[in-house]
Specification:
mainly alpha; about 350 residues; 12 helices
Chain lengths: ~350, ~350
């Protein structure tokens, strides 16, 4: 395994396979280092410990995302069946590992929102200050999220001993230095990889054009609360859950496309602070949208008091407002980006291959 | 009574008293024309008719505000006791007449918000679409606002026959052509009136500097929901109602100052589309803040269902969001204004007195 920088000369004459192998070797190595740490972390803590994800789990999630993204974007140079299987297994691990930290973040987000809305600090009083429903709603959310998290923890614990995970680890071990490449990988790196990275960026741009970006960039338009997008008629009677899910879906898809474009650019030796930032904005969008669903679900708990329900209504609207704020942030930043992205990929073909950066896992 | 335009020559040599008398005569005339219409309108409709304010009431409110503002801003040239008494009586009528139309607008605002939040139009689905609490919350708000409005209607009906209103009408009749001016009113109009109008604008500017305008001009800062301003410590334990009232108060005061500045500029022959617009923005602020209080009160109704309370929580947050949106609109528009306002009052002193515009009542 090597993740030492390639020399400039080697880089200039490198094949696409060299570059991809080098990246996969580095990421698979990072995976294999992070996996036992993550397993140890999950095993060592009870289901209700406060601080996750620990470093091992976070690193593992980062490498899993990067390898999966790389196999997707540059898929045409890999053996198809192998790449497809690998992506399926990586997605399984991602969903498994992301669940518990996701609940921890959601808990922090929602209890933080509630504390902020019901806070009575002289410098930051909230509209629910002193409301009798606030402690009850807090206890309800805390209880439900802790339960969800404990369940997620148990299923991770179980799967970490599974044959499926061992098989994936073996697959990653084999990947170090030995990615199953097709003949196309023998072409010079810029000629093979740049068009595929450009395609990832083009898909991103095209998807962004489908979003209501002009509307999103006008603040306080009510996009998160009142003016949800049209629900396809085939889905039948519109309820709020369906409408919200349909409204959020294209933004969730954008998040995936931004990550893929980020990782594709990394392979081409480019990084983009703008894309990193958009990734963060869409991450906030996702977490606020998910948190809003949790609150709406909690409000349907039988036998809660009206005061509790009232507070949950305020928190639900607050999280939809966060959704709207994230869309605004995205809508404001986006318009400057597509030309910039094209620009990076229009660089003279041999430039930018001068080094294979140390593996990023953030 | 005359509201014919003064000739340019007459205007150039007019005294402050001439200008003020001309304005007061025009407005008092408008008052006396609108009063019987307004009385007829109130008397003719039952307490639950849908469309108020009718034209007579709206005109009457406009003239009452203008006369009161004029007596305040240019108070030094009027007999003190008379001006003070007149303002007190005008404020009494304003509060009396504004109450019922206020409830009608609040009802339209809140039921409209609820319909929008629970709407299931394909093009504008709301986050409460299909929620079982929505019809109940709507019925509750409708019932409480109709009751408040009926009470307001009864007290207007009663007071419209009162000796107090007749005395005020007599006072306005005497005002036509005969405002009780002091000697200071004999000075030339620009020399006397411009400094007083400038003082009204200066008070407006100074008050605006006290508002968190920079924060307000950053969208989605949470100013309406989470980050209410500090409550003076002397008020004891902070509850949400106190905190919200304290947070909204300086904006309500701004609205009064904007109106005073508008009316003072009108007397000086200037109009300002920007101030008219800010007046509208602060009007929306006030109505959203008042509507939010109504929802919070409705949510304390005993024996409502949790679903109803949940919907009221969402609507409450929605109205606080409208408050925040109005502050944003104000914060964005304000910074360009103070120099502009100063500019108008720095015009050569004799200009702009060329005509006394027909009385505005909007």
């Amino acid at each position: 395994m090597t993740d030492a920088p390639m020399t400039a000369q080697a880089a200039a004459t490198a094949t696409a396979g060299d570059i991809l192998s080098s990246h996969l070797t580095a990421q698979a190595g990072a995976f294999l280092r992070a996996l036992p740490l993550a397993v140890g972390e999950v095993g060592a803590r009870p289901g209700t410990a406060a601080v996750v994800p620990a470093a091992g789990t976070a690193d593992l999630l980062g490498t899993v995302r990067r390898i999966g993204g790389l196999l997707h974007t540059f898929g045409s140079v890999f053996e198809q069946a192998w790449a497809q299987e690998s992506r399926t297994e990586l997605r399984w691990l991602l969903n498994l590992l992301a669940l518990e930290p996701g609940y921890v973040r959601r808990s922090a987000r929602l209890l933080g929102a509630l504390d902020s809305l019901s806070g009575s600090d002289p410098d930051g009083t909230g509209m629910l200050a002193g409301h009798t429903g606030a402690p009850k709603a807090r206890a309800l959310l805390d209880r439900q999220l802790t339960l969800a998290r404990t369940r997620a923890h148990s299923s991770v614990l179980q799967e970490l001993r599974s044959a499926r995970l061992h098989a994936l680890a073996d697959r990653m071990t084999l990947l170090v230095g030995e990615a199953p490449l097709l003949e196309a990988a023998g072409g010079r790196a810029p000629a093979v990889l740049l068009p595929q990275a450009a395609a990832a960026v083009a898909v991103l741009s095209a998807s962004a054009q489908q979003l209501p970006l002009r509307r999103a960039a006008t603040p306080y338009g009510g996009d998160g609360l009142r003016r949800l997008g049209a629900v396809p008629a085939a889905r039948g009677a519109v309820d709020a859950d369906t409408a919200l899910a349909a409204d959020d879906a294209p933004w969730a898809r954008m998040r995936i496309l931004v990550k893929r474009a980020r990782y594709a650019l990394e392979v081409c030796g480019r990084t983009s602070a703008e894309l990193d930032e958009l990734d963060g904005v869409l991450g906030r969008h996702q977490e606020a949208a998910d948190a809003a669903v949790t609150v709406a679900t909690a409000a349907r708990t039988p036998r809660i008091t009206p005061a509790t329900a009232y507070v949950l209504g305020v928190v639900h609207a607050d999280q939809r407002l966060e959704v709207e704020a994230a869309r605004y942030a995205f809508g404001r930043r986006w318009p400057d980006l597509p030309p910039g992205l094209d620009g990076w990929l229009d660089l003279p073909a041999a430039e930018g291959w001068g080094h294979s950066p140390a593996p990023r896992t953030a």
